[in-house]
Amino acid sequence: MKIFSPATVANVSCGFDVLGFCLESIGDEMVIRKTDEKGIRITKIEGFDLPFEAEKNVAGVSALALMEAAKPNCGFEIEIYKNIKPGSGVGSSSASAVGSVFGINELLGRPFDKTQLTNFAMKGEALASQCEHADNIAPAIFGGFTLVKSVTPLEVLQLPTPANLFAVIIHPQIEIKTSEARSILPKQIDLQKAITQWSNVGSLVHALHTSDYGLLSRSLSDVVVEPYRKQLIPHFDDLRESALKNGALGCGISGSGPSVFSLCHGRETAKNVARAIKTLFSKTDIPFEMYLSRINTEGIKVIG
Amino acid sequence: MKIFSPATVANVSCGFDVLGFCLESIGDEMVIRKTDEKGIRITKIEGFDLPFEAEKNVAGVSALALMEAAKPNCGFEIEIYKNIKPGSGVGSSSASAVGSVFGINELLGRPFDKTQLTNFAMKGEALASQCEHADNIAPAIFGGFTLVKSVTPLEVLQLPTPANLFAVIIHPQIEIKTSEARSILPKQIDLQKAITQWSNVGSLVHALHTSDYGLLSRSLSDVVVEPYRKQLIPHFDDLRESALKNGALGCGISGSGPSVFSLCHGRETAKNVARAIKTLFSKTDIPFEMYLSRINTEGIKVIG
């Protein structure tokens, strides 16, 4: 069985640690086969250099978590074709973690629901980021926009996605460690800034429900985390200014970076934004990759 | 023209400074008459002892703000029949501020929209609470649940209200000054608590849109403000426990207190909650008043 496991954007400006959305045009592929022999074997990895031992591989660890709960009378072989570069900030480890559990669940006849799959995948994610979080996993599994209401117990809300929403992603090829991006955040924040942030989270959710692109734009603001993390991303302010000037609804750091997302109303606007960002970043000496994608409301899926 | 100007609940647990909802069964009444003589005259105040000079009266100040913008060729007389006790925490000053501007706007043929009326009323509110805020004014004017996305510029979002939602209010007859309730709050809060709070605000908005009473219940939590302010309200923890044990979806401080609200699914549950709270509070030596009200989706209105 062949799986498409999508890239995702976590945080989404105001929604630090809780919001995320799913991309359509970039993701990993995985092939999963049932075997008579029990256990998980990773038999092929293409694209990037990752460990083959199941216990040391994100996709392996999440698969093992599922196996422990399912105790099936069989095993699984996994082939991983990675397109999402590890450390890019668009949910590379989540895509791996999600792909194996989704595929195995399909082959077993779907004994687990999406929330349970999210829980298994979080075990894999924890291997990569040293903490269990679901803000990339949830949108990959549920599709569209998600809000992770709580992790213990896990509760994921599937939010509506306005029909005509596109994302432009730029991935500057620099390294930001998630742990570093976490450590530069203050442990305490101004109450006033927190109020601004939760006002924006509330209005962003309302904007998604009402397909109000203007309100969505006015809600895509991060007064808490971005002021610290943007220092880790060269030319972030110029990039953001250019995206907004060219019609983006909002622009922010994807996950803990270095990727930066812009949300746009309509494909034409997204193309304009992509063009402007490309022109701007081409003048720097930092190599980069770009993606333009509709918001993927389906999430992870079987493709063969 | 006779106006019913409703009481309101601000903050709504997780939504400190931004959320509010409107009540149906308690509110002030005001009678407003066009006069040839220019200016605002308050000719009658019943219920509580409040100043008659327009410049010192909340309803007068908000009316004067409207008059300055409208510059009408007439004046207005205002009679105020107050039912909402000042300082009760259910938007007494907001009801006054809103009543006069709503009534005058009606008599002038509605030159101003609801957001403009909110702006005028905030001038009156500022007289009472020393700061311009709209979290009681907005639900009184718009009805139902509101989210004040920003004050400058003013942007109010009207959120949907699930059909079968009731509030139980208990007003312990003690005095809490808004300024005191503000001053005990810390200027800085834990980032982790802020994340919990904005997760709850997001899920509360989603719960209102989907009429998901269970999610509404799980979202009605305040980890930021309530831990400080509840000390000002005797027996708060017992009261909350009793409300939840008797089926309330949530229970929290109304505005800056001392009133406490419980939100309930259905009138029968609300009655049970009211009964339990009444029994509990009757054992204390603090006098109190109680109200049971459907959520008022209409807001302020002409009643004669």
UniProtKB/TrEMBL annotation, chains A, B:
Q: Which UniProt keywords apply?
A: Amino-acid biosynthesis, ATP-binding, Cytoplasm, Kinase, Nucleotide-binding, Threonine biosynthesis, Transferase
Membrane-traversing stretches: none
* Entry's Gene Ontology molecular function annotations: ATP binding; homoserine kinase activity
Subcellular location as annotated: Cytoplasm
Spell out the InterPro entries in the cross-references.
Answer: GHMP_kinase_C_dom (IPR013750), GHMP_kinase_C_sf (IPR036554), GHMP_kinase_N_dom (IPR006204), Homoserine_kinase (IPR000870), Ribosomal_Su5_D2-typ_SF (IPR020568), Ribsml_uS5_D2-typ_fold_subgr (IPR014721)
Q: Matching HAMAP family, A to Z?
A: Homoser_kinase (MF_00384)
Return the EC number: 2.7.1.39
Q: Which species is this record about?
A: Subsaximicrobium wynnwilliamsii
**Substrates-to-products reaction catalysed:** L-homoserine + ATP = O-phospho-L-homoserine + ADP + H(+)
UniProt-recorded name of the protein? Homoserine kinase
The protein's enzyme class: transferase
